[in-house]
């Protein structure tokens, strides 16, 4: 963490400690206590961290900072739309709902977020859910978020984008140790089209699951899927931002992305000296999946479980400079994001990876699919130990 980031994180953490404190457990199945709070053991997590000191940029339709649950949680931000109404203007409500899923405090009967101690940096790039305001706005939004100190960028939307400009912005984020989460899209029951920016290297693509940990049919699928998070029965403003909050039957991959971003904020807040590689690695290693599954095209490496990291201490963060996925892409960047990357090895196609909650090392394929180098330092320790034993045996 750079001195500037450390100073900013310290200031924000002190502000959060004075301004926010999660309330006691609430009745289940409400916008203040949705079903996944029990699954993720939020009350136990909040004893360790609430996301304090972490800035999450929400690139969306703006964020209404006057909502009771978001008061004191929203930074100034920027409006990149032609309307120039301000980053705190949200005529759609979509961006405000995503922000509240991340950092809502539940105040005044509002939405309760997963990381209520985090700060939201609103980056307004769309006026409503379908009126995207220009290809260059996506790239400009990412660049602004990186330069403004965001550690996590949440993109709960998809659109046509300029590949060259977006790639440059993603490279900037990688070099500045920023994680980007984006929804895979909600076309799984129709054309299942590949959506940008989730389809780009450098972006963690998030799919949606239901309360039974099953992929929901509308969630777009494919090799781009990295992780999954709850997408059904999710809190939101069901009429407009001036009305009461409720529980939506289908929150979509937008909501799933927000919850994945909030999960990363919690982990990073507890481990502020970790790099993006380490945060992502433990998220992949601790993701919930069947014992016989490594990854699939529907839920990726599994469903986010920040509680396993924060409460149980699971997950090996590994090498801070070694990305668990996008290894070739980062190494190929001009001024690589990963210092002196080592060449990848071609895996033996006949070898079956060992199943279980701890993912083993694998290479990133040439087509950009996500096959992560998630193994931490355990293998290195074993290798050193074996080498030393052989040397001693040879000298004996």
What features would you describe in this structure?
The chain has 396 residues and is an alpha/beta fold. It has 11 helices and 9 strands. The strands form 2 sheets. The chain has a 7-stranded parallel β-sheet with strand order 2-3-1-4-5-6-7, sandwiched between helices. A two-stranded antiparallel sheet has the order 8-9.
Main sheet? 7 strands, parallel
Global mean pLDDT = 82
Structural class: alpha/beta
Spatial order of the strands forming the largest sheet: 2-3-1-4-5-6-7
Q: Element order, helices and strands?
A: HHHEEHEHEHEEEEEHHHHH
- Which spans have pLDDT < 50 for at least 5 consecutive residues? 6-27, 345-396
Please supply descriptive tags for the structure shown above.
disordered C terminus; 31% helix; 11 helices; seven-stranded parallel beta sheet; two-stranded antiparallel ribbon; single chain; alpha/beta
